[in-house]
Amino acid sequence: MTGNPFFPLEEMGFDAEENQMMVIPKVDHAIYEQRRKMVGTVVDYKEMRMRYSCAIKEVRTKFDVLNSEFNVRYRRNPITSINSRLKSSTSILDKLNRKGLAFTVENVEKNLYDVAGIRVVCSYVDDIYGLAQALAKQDDITVIREKDYIKNPKPNGYRSYHMIVSVPVFFSDQTKEMAVEVQIRTIAMDFWASLEHQLKYKQEVPNQKEIVGSLTVCAEQIAAIDEQMCQVRRQIERSEDLPTEEEILLEKLRKIDIAVGE
Ligand code: GTP
Ligand code: MG
């Protein structure tokens, strides 16, 4: 006999042997209501994750556009890589717990700003500020929070430019403002942060204090090199010969190729 898989017959006091002829079992409304809520919650949660994932796409595209524009205008890419991530369900649960909040879609959307995260890695420090400004001034972007850990590094030496932005995402039935955490840093800062991150996840590291100290020294050296690299690049740019008329013409043609090809 086939029954509704969501409502096993035994759970509803349905005696299979005695009621061989009964086809439609009676529904236990309490259980039905519980399951309906559960399915509803799961669907809402999945939709919420989908919305954050779309918000990532929106902001990622903005950085891709800025990179292409910069490439055509200045013949170099300020961005070397873009990575994104959606916060895992366990991390969302942990963070809500730490804030003393229940696991609901509403609580996530109102209280967590880092469910959608984008990390933009650049070669030079001045590109970080250029990109942050270019993003912030876009009409559809609202900057909720900014933290400049480059001008004000963390005591351990951590450096990066952090922004929480809100971006409208257009769905078939609604437009939703979604929060996205953006981290912009240089290759060197990223290199440092990934090593320091590894240390955080190690349980017991011998010479922990010494390692922390070494990392802080590395962070200072990295910051000095980042600054020097920026200055050297500017010197090179300044010393570039003025192009001939023919070179200007060829450059214009090259730009057309890029604009059409990309
Ligand atoms: P969270 O509650 O952890 O999200 O911190 P917050 O809301 O105070 O934000 P903050 O801007 O300080 O940090 C957010 C993110 O930046 C973290 O989730 C990390 O990805 C990164 N981050 C911040 N501090 C450090 C650090 O000391 N080391 C490394 N490796 N990453 C860091
Ligand atoms: Mg975080």
Question: Could you give the topology of this structure?
Answer:
Layout: H1 29-74, E1 79-86, H2 89-98, H3 105-111, E2 116-122, H4 125-136, E3 142-148, E4 161-170, E5 175-186, H5 187-201, H6 208-239, H7 245-261
Parallel strand pairs: 2-5
Antiparallel strand pairs: 1-2, 3-4, 4-5
Helix pairs in contact: 5-6
Guanosine-5'-triphosphate (GTP) binds at residues 114, 147, 154, 156, 158, 162, 183, 193, 196-197.
Overview features:
7 helices, binds guanosine-5'-triphosphate, alpha+beta, 262 residues, 53% helix, 5 strands, binds magnesium ion, 5-stranded mixed beta sheet
Describe the model.
The protein is of the alpha+beta class and 262 residues long. It has 7 helices and 5 strands. The protein has a 5-stranded mixed β-sheet. Helix 5 (187-201) runs antiparallel to helix 6. It binds guanosine-5'-triphosphate and magnesium ion. The site of guanosine-5'-triphosphate (GTP) has 10 residues, from helix 5.
Biggest pleated-sheet summary: 5 strands, mixed
The SS-based structural class is alpha+beta
Distance between the termini: 60 Å
Radius of gyration: 27 Å
Q: Which percent band covers the strand fraction?
A: 15-25%
Q: How many strand units?
A: 5
**What is the helix tally?**
7
How would you spell out the order of helices and strands?
A: HEHHEHEEEHHH
- Average pLDDT, to the nearest integer? 88
What characteristic shape results from the CA principal axes? flat
Helix content: 40-55%
List bound small molecules. guanosine-5'-triphosphate, magnesium ion
Contiguous low-pLDDT stretches (5 residues minimum) are 5-9
> Order of strands across the biggest sheet?
1-2-5-4-3
